[in-house]
């Protein structure tokens, strides 16, 4: 398709230069381009198809003059096109390519780095407050969608926004969806024939000026409403509430349970290749299948997830046990709090997170779960590198912050058998809170190696024997451990290796025995060095005053860019070859 209008757009001023009658033509070109481009690269297709007209209207009215903040950032593809980034789309989902989210390094029109939901209203409140203090007449626009309004931070921001007449415009992209369909009270407020009327009462009751747009794809209605809102915001915070359709223009999205929220590359006509997840059997799929199996055996088992069911492979659980499989919406803190309530009444809650979002519930893990020492089980998929989503999505801080929590056990399975057996064990024997961490990727090719040498779950697992030193590793580093052993063997060094499954509490007695046997120990981890497994092993050696040399291989404490696992391991120096070279430099192997 020829993109006659889109090819002329280099920044929002070019959008504003168009006659309003041309805007539907621009929307059609953008929608066609997004389908054509994202079907080749993969990306957040459904979320972005729903905000094409909404984003055009925002730039047409507010353009380059005002700051527009997107919550969540995966709604930003049309914004990227209208700010001159069309040529970058071919690099989406490529290492070093265009971000899936908003990124200040890409454009001055990206006010914030936006990749997690729920932050926009609070940040926009701060920006608007600053404008008010500076005495200028700029307003700030926060576009909130895909279920982000139910985030605790969003609700706190709503509560504050009318407190001091700040020039803030909150635009609600109401498509009835988070990743899956919305749930709860806000969903009820926004649904039904009188939803705009109910919403008006709600927001005006909070002190907002309110405008409703029934058809969020009607460019004339959107432009006219935003012009009114721009004038009104001088008197204080405004809400523009508009109904949109997630996945609009792509027939495949209509019957998809997540409206094709995200997909790997796919055929837009046949649907071949549609999947939001990596190919092959993943650890997430193994965990999901095991939980589904156990739900049939124990009616006290309850699964909760904060709006990430597909990442935890919970579709079968939702289908077969809907009363005991609960999506609480984008409400990570509530998920832990609710699990605590279930545990207090004798239920057996499993809370399924993507690791990157688990950090939002840090306070609840300390104050509610750990302080009361409740037997809740947190299933945290995507521990370690998270791929091409964003720097903020990596689960490389988990162990460092979780281990500071008293009473919280931390388990990292080395194999699929470890993972299934620990889930089974927790259902029957849980007496403390536990976090089970596991990666997003396909099951390791060395999975059978760890299964075949299976030992009891309470102790580390000796994988290989050797006389010259010891390699310690958690489950997501098994490939690195095997590769490192091979490199060492080629240099005449024969190292033992052991899978450390219980990260907290550490197997202190076992480690003491190994430190008395081996003079040189290498600790692998896909976690930051500060506060990681290597730090714990080194601290233990120092406390015991043992004459052992320890090489810690972890990620320098930093924010790591998006990228595939192999690339990021090499970039951060935790791949087998980099570790081997460090050993050579330190120990002269």
Quick overview:
With 589 residues, the chain is an alpha/beta fold. It has helices at 12-16, 23-41, 45-49, 52-61, 77-82, 120-134, 152-161, 185-189, 195-206, 219-232, 283-295, 315-320, 332-344, 355-358, 362-370, 398-402, 416-429, 447-452, 478-490, 508-517, 533-544, 565-572, 576-587; strands at 67-71, 140-145, 168-174, 209-213, 238-243, 301-305, 325-327, 348-354, 377-381, 409-411, 434-438, 461-464, 469-473, 495-499, 502-504, 520-528, 549-555.
Helix content: 25-40%
Nearest-angstrom radius of gyration? 26 Å
What's the CATH H-level superfamily name of the largest domain?
Thiamin diphosphate (ThDP)-binding fold, Pyr/PP domains
Q: Give me the side-by-side strand order of the main sheet.
A: 7-6-8-9-11-10-15
Question: N-to-C terminal Cα separation, in Å?
Answer: 60 Å
CATH topology of the largest domain: Rossmann fold
Structurally, the number of domains stands at: 3
User: Quick one: how many beta strands?
Assistant: 17
Number of helices: 23
**Which sheet architecture does the biggest sheet show?**
7 strands, mixed
Written account of the structure:
- This protein is of the alpha/beta class.
- It has 3 domains: 6-253, 3-Layer(aba) Sandwich (Rossmann fold); 283-438, Thiamin diphosphate (ThDP)-binding fold, Pyr/PP domains (Rossmann fold), CATH 3.40.50.970; 454-587, Rossmann fold, CATH 3.40.50.
- The chain is 38% helix and 15% strand.
- It has 23 helices and 17 strands.
- The strands form 3 sheets. The protein has a 7-stranded mixed beta sheet, sandwiched between helices. A 5-stranded parallel beta sheet has the order 1-2-3-5-4, with helices on both faces. It has a 5-stranded mixed beta sheet with strand order 12-14-13-16-17, with helices on both faces.
- α7 links the parallel β2 (140-145) and β3.
- The model has no long low-confidence stretch (mean pLDDT 94).
């Amino acid at each position: 398709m020829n993109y006659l209008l889109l090819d002329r757009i280099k920044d929002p001023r070019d959008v504003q230069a168009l006659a309003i009658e041309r805007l539907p033509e621009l929307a059609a070109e953008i929608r066609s381009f997004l389908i054509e481009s994202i079907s080749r690269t993969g990306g957040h297709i459904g979320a972005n198809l729903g905000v094409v007209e909404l984003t055009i209207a925002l730039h047409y009215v507010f353009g380059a003059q005002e700051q527009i903040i997107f919550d969540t950032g995966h709604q930003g593809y049309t914004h990227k096109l209208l700010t001159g980034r069309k040529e970058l789309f071919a690099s989406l989902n490529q290492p070093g390519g265009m971000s899936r989210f908003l990124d200040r390094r890409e454009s001055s029109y990206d006010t914030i780095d936006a990749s997690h939901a729920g932050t926009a209203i609070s940040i926009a409140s701060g920006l608007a407050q600053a404008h008010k203090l500076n005495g200028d007449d700029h307003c700030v626009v926060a576009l909130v969608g895909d279920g982000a309004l139910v985030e605790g931070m969003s609700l706190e921001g709503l509560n504050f926004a009318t407190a001091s007449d700040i020039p803030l415009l909150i635009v609600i992209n109401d498509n009835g969806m988070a990743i899956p369909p919305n749930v709860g009270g806000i969903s009820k407020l926004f649904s039904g024939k009188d939803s705009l009327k109910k919403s008006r009462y709600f927001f005006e009751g909070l002190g907002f000026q309110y405008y409703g747009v029934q058809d969020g794809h009607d460019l004339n209605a959107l432009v006219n409403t935003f012009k009114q809102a721009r004038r009104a915001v001088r008197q204080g915070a405004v809400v523009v509430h508009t109904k949109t359709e997630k996945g609009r223009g792509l027939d495949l999205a209509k019957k998809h349970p997540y409206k094709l929220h995200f997909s790997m590359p796919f055929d837009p006509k046949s649907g071949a290749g549609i999947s939001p997840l990596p190919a092959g059997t993943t650890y997430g799929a193994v965990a999901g299948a095991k939980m589904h199996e156990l739900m049939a055996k124990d009616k006290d088992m309850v699964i909760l997830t904060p709006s990430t069911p597909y990442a935890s492979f919970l579709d079968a659980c939702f289908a077969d046990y809907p009363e005991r499989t609960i999506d609480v919406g984008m409400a990570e803190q509530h998920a832990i709090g609710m699990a605590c309530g279930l545990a207090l009444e004798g239920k057996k809650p499993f809370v399924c997170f993507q690791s990157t979002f688990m950090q939002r519930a840090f306070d609840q893990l300390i104050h509610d779960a750990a302080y009361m020492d409740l037997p809740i089980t947190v299933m945290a998929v995507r521990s370690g590198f998270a791929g091409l989503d964003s720097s903020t999505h990596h689960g490389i801080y988990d162990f460092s912050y979780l281990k500071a929590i008293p009473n919280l056990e931390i388990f990292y399975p080395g194999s699929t058998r470890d993972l299934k057996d620990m889930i089974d064990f927790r259902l029957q024997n849980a007496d403390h809170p536990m976090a089970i961490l596991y990666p997003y990727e396909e099951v390791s090719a060395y999975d059978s190696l760890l299964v075949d040498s299976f030992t009891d779950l309470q102790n580390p697992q000796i994988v290989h024997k050797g006389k010259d030193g010891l390699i310690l590793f958690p489950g997501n580093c098994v490939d690195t451990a095997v590769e490192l052993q091979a490199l060492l063997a080629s240099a005449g060094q024969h190292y033992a290796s052991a899978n450390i499954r219980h990260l907290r509490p550490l197997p202190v007695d076992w480690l003491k025995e190994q430190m008395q046997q081996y003079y040189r120990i290498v600790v692998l981890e896909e976690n930051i060095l500060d506060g990681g497994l290597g730090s714990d092993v080194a601290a233990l050696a120092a406390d015991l005053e043992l004459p052992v040399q320890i090489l810690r291989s972890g990620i320098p404490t930093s924010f790591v860019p998006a990228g595939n696992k192999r690339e990021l391991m090499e970039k951060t120096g935790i791949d087998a070859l980099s570790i081997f070279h460090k050993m050579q430099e330190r120990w002269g192997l």
